Amino acid sequence: MGSKDPVSVLKGVGKQAAETLQEMKIETIHDLIMTFPYRHEDFQLKDLADTPHNERVTVEGRVESEPSVLFLGKNKSRTTVQVMVGRHLIKAIFFNQPYVKAKLRISEVVTLTGKWDRGRQVITVSNHTIGPRTDGADFEPVYSLKGSIFQKTFRKLMRQALDLAKGDIEDCLPERFRTKYHLPSIEDALEWVHFPTDGEALKQARRRFVYEELLMFQLKMQALRKKTREEEGGSFIDYDLGRLKQFIETLPFDLTDAQKRVVNEICRDLKEPFRMNRLLQGDVGSGKTVVAAISLYGAVTAGQQGALMAPTEILAEQHANTLAQWFQPFAVNIALLTGSVKGKKRQLIQEQLAAGEIDILIGTHALIQPDVRFKKLGLVITDEQHRFGVDQRRVLKDKGYNPDVLFMTATPIPRTLAISAFGEMDVSVIDEMPVGRKEIQTFWMKKDMFGKIVSRMEKELAAGRQAYVICPLIEESDKLDYQNAVDLFQQLSTYFHGKHTVGLMHGRLSSDEKEETMRSFTEGEIEVLVSTTVVEVGVNVPNATFMLIYDAERFGLSQLHQLRGRVGRGSDQSYCVLLADPKTEIGKERMASMTETNDGFVLAEKDLQLRGPGDFFGRKQSGVPEFKMADLVHDYRALETARRDAEALVNSDEFWTGDETRCLREHLEESGALAAGRLD
C-alpha cells in the first residue's frame, strides 16, 4: 500500500467517514497527509513571568485552597481554586465543570492549560490533568474538520497514513534548493508538521512547506509571464529620445528621482519586442499623471497612438486638461471621449482616430465601444485599474496589435500583495513625493468634539476654502448607529444657512447627478460637500483644504488614506479630522497610525497586518491566492526568494527538460497556467 491508495484502506474509515473525508476533498492517503493543521496546541510548560497577557499557557502547580463552586443558572457554574505556580499564587477558574471540585485537593499537583490574565493573575482553564504532566506531546495538531470526525480520530488516521506512505512520497523540491536553504526532506517535514517532537521541528517543517508552496505559485506566475511575452509579441515603440527629453525640460517642475526611475523602466519596456505589462503604483499626489504623459509622448514620437482610460468623466476631463497644457508647445493632437460626447462631435473624433489624426485619446469606458477604432494603437494606460473589470481592460488592449499596457493605481499595494496578485506583471513604484508639497495635518478626535471641529471648518470656509465631510452610510440604518450622509447634510445645511453652500453626494445618485454635483464643487459653487466614499478616487479640487471623516473607525487604513488624499492638492495647508470612538484595539491602532504618517505604503503594510490579505482590497480578491501554510504578511522574505528562484527556473532550458525538475513541471502543467494564456 502507498500514498495513492484510497483512505478507505485505513483502519476506522467506514462508509460514513469516507464520505465526510470526501467532503473535505480527501480521497487518497496523499490527500490526507497533505491536509495540514491550521494551528498547534502548545502544551510546553511555561514560566508565568514570561507569559504575555491573554496568551494561552500550560503550567504545573500545587492546589493551595479548597475549591469553591458558584452556580450561575441552568447548567452553568464557575469553580475557583487557588494554585501556587512557581512563585505565583494564582486563581484557576473552571467554567461549567462543577465535578472538578471533588478532584482538586489541597497540596495536589495539577497541570492546567488556559488563557492567562496577567493583570488579575487568573487562568481560565480549558484543559487540566490531576498530577504532573508525564505523557503526551508538547505540540498537538488542530485540523479544520467536518461532520462527525473529531480531532482525536483524525490524528489516529493521520498516524496510520504517514506510516503507510513512508518511502512512497515523491519529493518535488529539487535537492539543490533543500541544500541551499537547509530544508528538511518531504518525509521529515510531513512527520514534523503533523507530530512535532519540539518547537524547532515544527518551525523547520513550516519553513519547507511555506517555501515550496510559494515556489509552486511563483512558477505558475513566471511561466505565464514568459508564455505571454513569447506568444503575444508586442508593439516595438522606437521613441525619439531627443524629443522626449525636450518635452520633459518644458514641464513646469522637475521630476523626482522616483519619477525618473519609473520613466526609465517604462521606456526600456517600450523598446523591447515583447508587450509591456506593467503596474505603476504611486501614492496620492506622487505624480503618476506626468509619467503617463511622458510614456504616451514616447508612443507618439514613434508614430503610434496612445490611449488613457479613466474610471469617471471628471477624472478623464482632468487628465485631458492637464495633458493639453503640457503638450501645448508640441504638435500633439489630444481628444477626449466620454459618454457626454455625442452626435457629430463624437463622429468626428471616431473618423480622426481611425485616420490616425488623433495622437492621444483620453476617456472613460466610452473608449471600449465597438465603434471606436484606432489606426495604430501602441500604448494603453488604464488609470485606477482596479475600478475596471478584466473584460473592459482586455477590450481596450485588443483595439491594437498587442499594444504595450500600463496599469496605474493610487492605492498603495504592499509589495507582498503586488508580487502575489500581480505576479505576472512588472511592478514600478513612485515612492517619493514632489518637493514643496505640504503634509496634510491629521487629527483623531472623539464624537463629543463635533462642535469644535465644525467651528474649525468654518474658519477655512471664511478664508475662501472648501471642505469635504465623509460618511459611511447613505441613510439611517436600524442595525448600525453611524451618522449618515443625509442627516449630516441637513444638519450642516441648517448650521451654515445663509453663510455657506452645502452639497450632498452618494452612490444612489444617477451618473449625471453625481457629475453635476462634483462639477459644482470643483467650480466652487458648493463649499461643503457631504459625501459617501464615492469621492475616493480621481477628484482634484486644489481649493479643498479641510476633510472631516465621520465614524472613521468604519474604514480601513488604505481607504482612509485615499480619502485624505482628496485634500492637500493645492499650495495651502490642509487638514483631515478623523471623528471616531473605536471600541477595539485594532480600531484605536488604525486611528493612531493615520495621525503618525502620510506615507501610503507604510499604512498599506499596517493595514495588511491588521486586516490580512483577504480583506486588504475591501473584498475577497480572486487575484490574491489562498495558501495552506504560507502567510503573505509574515512570509514576505520567502515570497521574494521564491519569486527569484521561479524566474530563474522558467528562464532556464534545464527546467523544461531536466529530470530533477520533472515533478515541478508536472505540477505546473496540472495547474493549467501553461494553457490558460493569461491570468487576469
UniProtKB/TrEMBL annotation:
Identification of the protein by name: ATP-dependent DNA helicase RecG
PANTHER family tied to this protein: ATP-DEPENDENT DNA HELICASE HOMOLOG RECG, CHLOROPLASTIC
Family of this protein: Belongs to the helicase family. RecG subfamily.
Reactions listed under catalytic activity: ATP + H2O = ADP + phosphate + H(+); Couples ATP hydrolysis with the unwinding of duplex DNA by translocating in the 3'-5' direction
Swiss-Prot/TrEMBL keywords: ATP-binding, DNA damage, DNA recombination, DNA repair, DNA-binding, Helicase, Hydrolase, Isomerase, Nucleotide-binding
Gene3D superfamilies for the chain: Nucleic acid-binding proteins, P-loop containing nucleotide triphosphate hydrolases
Organism: Planococcus glaciei
One GO BP: DNA recombination
